[in-house]
Specification:
A 3-stranded antiparallel beta sheet has the order 2-1-3. It has 213 residues and is mainly alpha-helical.
Length: 213
C-alpha cells in the first residue's frame, strides 16, 4: 500500500509539473512571426537547465548617442556684378601702370628734331612707377594662385595704398618737369596714361576692400 501511494504521489507530481510547463509555454507564446516560429522563449525558473544558454534581448542594447550636430554656418553670398571685378580691374590697371613708365611722359623740339622722354628716364619717380605697377600685378597674381596676405593685412587696402602712392608720384611729375629732360618741356600722352592707371588702381583697391567687408 505504501509503495502504491508513493507511486501515485510521484505520478501526480509529474502531471502537475507537466501542467505548469504547458501553462508557462502558453504565457510566453509570441504572435505568429517568422522569428517566433523558429524561437520560443522559455522562463528559466521553470527549466533551470536553460539558464546558461538564455537568449539575450537584442532590443535592450543601449546605443551611445553621437555628437550633437553643429548649427549650419551662414554662407556668405558671392559678390557679383561690378563688385566682383575688383581684382580684374586692379590687375589690368597695375599692368598698364607698369608699362606706362616706358611711354613718352615729355615731348619737345630742339634744333629741328622732336624729342620724347619716357617715364623711366625721368628720374627715380619714373622707375618707382614701374615697380609699383609690378607689385600690384604680383599681388593679384599671387592671390589667384592661393597665396594670400595675413588676415591683419587686407589686400584691398594694400592695393589702395599703392595706387595712392603712384598717383602722388605721377602728379609730382605732371606739375614739375625735371631739368634733365629739357628741352622736352611739354607733357606727353604717356604721363596722362600713368595718371589714369594710378586712379584705376585706387578704384580696384576700393572695390576689393568693399568685397572683403
Amino acid at each position: 500500500m505504501e509503495r502504491a501511494a508513493h507511486a501515485r504521489a510521484h505520478v501526480e507530481e509529474l502531471d502537475e509539473a507537466h501542467v505548469e510547463l504547458r501553462s508557462a509555454l502558453k504565457l510566453v507564446q509570441q504572435p505568429a512571426t517568422p522569428l517566433s516560429r523558429r524561437f520560443v522563449l522559455v522562463p528559466t525558473d521553470v527549466v533551470p537547465i536553460l539558464a546558461p544558454v538564455e537568449t539575450p534581448d537584442f532590443f535592450d542594447v543601449e546605443v551611445p548617442a553621437g555628437p550633437e550636430p553643429s548649427p549650419p554656418r551662414y554662407a556668405r553670398p558671392a559678390p557679383g556684378g561690378l563688385w566682383a571685378a575688383g581684382e580684374r580691374i586692379t590687375w589690368v590697371a597695375g599692368l598698364v601702370l607698369m608699362l606706362s613708365s616706358f611711354t613718352d611722359w615729355y615731348a619737345g623740339s630742339g634744333q629741328g628734331v622732336q624729342l620724347a622722354v619716357i617715364g623711366w628716364h625721368t628720374g627715380v619717380l619714373g622707375k618707382l612707377i614701374f615697380f609699383i605697377g609690378l607689385a600690384v600685378v604680383a599681388l593679384v597674381t599671387l592671390n589667384e594662385l592661393g597665396f594670400e596676405l595675413p588676415p591683419t593685412v587686407p589686400g584691398g587696402l594694400v592695393v589702395l595704398a599703392l595706387g595712392a602712392l603712384a598717383m602722388i608720384f605721377v602728379v609730382i611729375r605732371v606739375i614739375s618737369i625735371p631739368d634733365a629732360v629739357l628741352p622736352a618741356n611739354a607733357r606727353g600722352i604717356g604721363i596722362w596714361i600713368s595718371l589714369l592707371a594710378a586712379l584705376a588702381v585706387i578704384a580696384g583697391g576700393l572695390l576689393q576692400t568693399s568685397e572683403d567687408l
